[in-house]
Each structure stands twice: as C-alpha cells, then as structure tokens.
Amino acid sequence: MPLVVKDYVWEETDTMVWITVPLKGVKSNRVDITSCKNYLKVSYPPYIFECLLFAPVDSAKGSAQIGNGAVTFKLYKEEPVLWKTLQHPDSVNKEIMKLKREEAHEEIKNRLEEQTKQNAETKREHEKLAISEMMKLEEQERTRISNIKESERQKATEDLERWKEEQRLLAEKEKERMLEAQREQVEAEKERDREERRKQRKARSANIFEKQGKDGKAPPRENGKIIVNHTPRAFPTPVRESQTEQEEEWLRKQAEAKRSIELSLDADLKEEEKNPQWLLDKGNSFFASGDYKSAINAYTHAIRMTPKLPSLYSNRAACHLKIRNFFKCIEDCSKAMDLLFPAVPQNASSRCKALVRRGTAFCELELYVEGLRDYEAALKIDPDNKALATDAERMRQIIQATD
After folding, report:
1. What is the DSSP annotation of 105-134?
2. 371-377 long-range CB contacts below 8 Å, 24 or more apart?
3. What is the phi-psi region of residue 235: left when phi exceeds 0, alpha when psi lies from -120 to 50, beta otherwise?
4. Given this model, what pLDDT does residue 358 score?
5. What is the pLDDT of residue 108?
6. Averaged over 142-147, what is the pLDDT?
7. How far apart (Å, rounded) are the C-alpha atoms in residues 11 and 86?
8. Is 90 exceeded by the pLDDT of residue 301?
9. Who's near 220: CB < 8 A, 6+ residues apart?
10. Alpha carbon distance, N-terminus to C-terminus of the chain
11. Taking 90 as the threshold, does the pLDDT of residue 177 lie above it?
12. Fewest CB within 10 angstroms: 99, 170, 219, 321, which?
C-alpha cells in the first residue's frame, strides 16, 4: 500500500497557487504526475500525493517542475479569490475521490485527443508554408546566382587594379632598400672609425695605470665580510608567498589536537586502543579491505578520544558514502571543513577531498546545485584535475536540462 505524502508546502495569491511536494530521495525518472483543473496526483513508489483542489484552476496555463528533490506546481486560478485551504472538503469522501480520478483521466484523454487534432492541423499549415517558402527560396537562388556573376566581374576588375598598385609599391620598396643599404654602409664605416679610436684610448689608459702600479700610488683594496641572517620558517614556502597568520593558526590547531591525544582514557582499553593514530590506521585498513562498517567504528572511537583531527571525519565520510549514508557523509565532510580552517597550502589536498565527497553525496540525493557548488570550490584548489572538471560540467548539463 502506498505511503501518503502529507509534508507538502503550498502558497497562494488571489490568482495563483504554488505547491511543493518533496520526493524523499526518489529519482526524478520514477515520478508520475497527473493534473487537471481540480485534481492533482504525484506518484513515486512507495509514496503518493493526491489532492482534490478547493476550486478549479486553468490546466492549460499551469506547469510542474521537477528538481532539487521536489516537484513544484505553478497553477493559475480560474476565479481570483483566496482559498484559505488547499484541499476541497469532499476530499475525505472516497466515492467522490474515485469519481474525480475518473473525471481527471477522462479530461486528460480528451486533452490529448484535442492536442492530436491540433498537431495535425498545425502540420498541414506547416506543409503549406513550406511550399511557399520553397518557392521563395528558388527565387532567391536565381537572384543569388545573378549577383555572383556580377560580383565575379567586379572582382576581376578589382584584382587587375590591385596588381597594378602592388607593382608600383614593389618598385618604391626596392628604391628604399637601395637607399637603406647605402646608409648602412656609411654607418659601418663610421663605426669602424669609432672602434679604432676606442682602442687607441684604451692603450693610453693601460700605460697610465701600469706606471701608477710601479710607483705604489694606487694601493690594493682591503678584504671585506658580509653576514646574511635568514628568518626560520615552519613551512617550506617563502615569506612573501605564505599567509603567516593563517599558517600559525593552523599550527596551533594541530598542536592542540596532538595534546588531546595524551589525555587518559578508560583503563579497560588496551594500550593501542587508546592511540587515535593506531585507530586511524586500523580504520584505513578496514576501508581498504571493503569492511566499511568496521572502519566507521574505528574512526568513531578515535573521534571520541580526539575530536579535532579532520582526517578522522573525512575518512569516516568516505565510508558513509560507500554504504550510501549520504546525510551522514555530508555532516562529516562539513565538520572536516570546519577543522581544516584556516585554508593554507598544507591542508589543500584534505580540503579538496572533503569537498568532492560532500559534492558526490549531494548529487546522489539529486541536489545538483549544492553538489556543483562543492565541485567548483574543489576545482579552485586543484584547477588541473580533469576528472573534477568533467564531473562539474556533467552537473551543469543536468541542472540546465532540469530547468
């Protein structure tokens, strides 16, 4: 027996009604919609939404849109008046509801038949218009051929005039080339004269310095020493490229997380079970072998001991994604992103993984707008990742098709 949806939302004005029915994680291709002037039905097994409207609406103007995990109806009232309630009082009567279902199916059947007739009439009109357009195209083709012949004649005349102009320009360029060659020859002779004079001056200067050296009037310079101090850096990036305040805050958070590991725990636990790093490695081992539930238990135990290590939440989110616990995956990824603040180059890879996992969970829930937002944020961190770019483009196409 189908489950009746009661958590719908509706709004109204004097002339319009909006109704939003949640799909509860069901894929949009499994949704069946029935709509007429006073009856609505949305069937997506195992759920069903059925509504006998308070007053008639214009079924020709209304619309239904599926997207972001819901079906949204946009209806136009036949009479401008406030309903104050969506359901008709007779909706509790099963016999009346049965009758309204049959009337709705009959109305839809008549509407389809009328649409078929209208399409046939439109097709005949289009055929007549196509013949008329074909005749116009033939006339345009004859005119085009005539214009081409005239254009070719004009082009031949223009080519002849252009060739004459090119020959004149070539003659002028040759004349300028010969004058430039003469100028270069004169400049080369002047340069040789200047070089000869420089050599003579250099020879005279060498004789003067040689004499000074022999007389001892030009003593040699004393040796010097230069000391350069370097600022120690906790990160390998230069100061001019790093964000010092953010990096220092990140180091403080990491140190605080490590200090919390040293807190005493339950005395009944084994020594290795008190070590979050051992539990992290154990969870990774379970994940690699496909035992995702055991991995979740290991990560959860480690989080109880040190709740400020972002890798524990990010890895547990990956496990939830594998077993399709999408809401828990989104929650863990969001917690990991909070702990990965501030954003510095040293945690860029971890932020990218958390964003991709959360975006994938959103897409599995058909929340493509939220998923695309996380993928675009991940692409800003890793712009050269072609797989991420391809998945983001696929989401944009899905969103556009839905709209």
Report:
1. HHHHHHHHHHHHHHHHHHHHHHHHHHHHHH
2. 371/395, 372/396, 372/399
3. beta
4. 96
5. 81
6. 91
7. 9
8. yes
9. none
10. 32
11. no
12. 219
Q: What's the confidence (pLDDT) of residue 179?
A: 84
pLDDT tens for each residue of 36-49: 888 888 888 888 88
Residue 264 pLDDT level (bands cut at 50, 70, 90): very low
Q: What is the Cα–Cα distance from 377 to 383, expressed in whole angstroms? A: 10
Do residues 356 and 374 make contact, with C-beta atoms less than 8 angstroms apart? yes
Picking from 281, 267, 274, the residue whose alpha carbon sits closest to that of residue 312 is 281
Specify the 3-state DSSP secondary structure of 19: strand
Q: Is residue 392 within 8 Å of residue 374, measured between CB atoms?
A: no
Beta bridge partners of 52: 39
Which 8-state DSSP code applies to residue 53? B
- Within 13 A of 326's CA, how many CA atoms are on the CB side? 13
Strand partners, 87: 53
What pLDDT score does 258 carry?
57
Average pLDDT (294-303) is 94
Map tokens 């945690």 to a residue: 347
- Where does residue 207 rank: exposed (0-12), middle (13-18), buried (19+ CB within 10 A)? exposed
Which whole-number Å values give the CA distances from 237 to 60, 232, 244, 274, 352, in the listed order?
65, 11, 10, 35, 20
Q: What is the mean pLDDT of residues 140-146?
A: 91
308-328 confidence digits (pLDDT tens): 899 999 999 999 999 999 999
Cβ neighbours, 10 Å, residue 349: 11
Secondary structure letter of residue 18 according to DSSP: E
17, two tokens: 């009604």
Residue 148: per-residue pLDDT: 92
Residue 329 has pLDDT above 80, yes or no: yes
Mean pLDDT of 277-290: 93
Q: Which domains does the chain have, with CATH numbers?
A: 3-92 (2.60.40.790), 243-402 (1.25.40.10)
Alpha helices in 216-325 (DSSP H): 244-261, 276-288, 292-305, 310-322
**C-alpha distances out from residue 25 to 21, 47, 49, 224, 258, Å:** 12, 11, 15, 77, 40
Calpha distance 297→158 (Å, rounded): 85
Q: pTM of the full predicted structure? A: 0.38
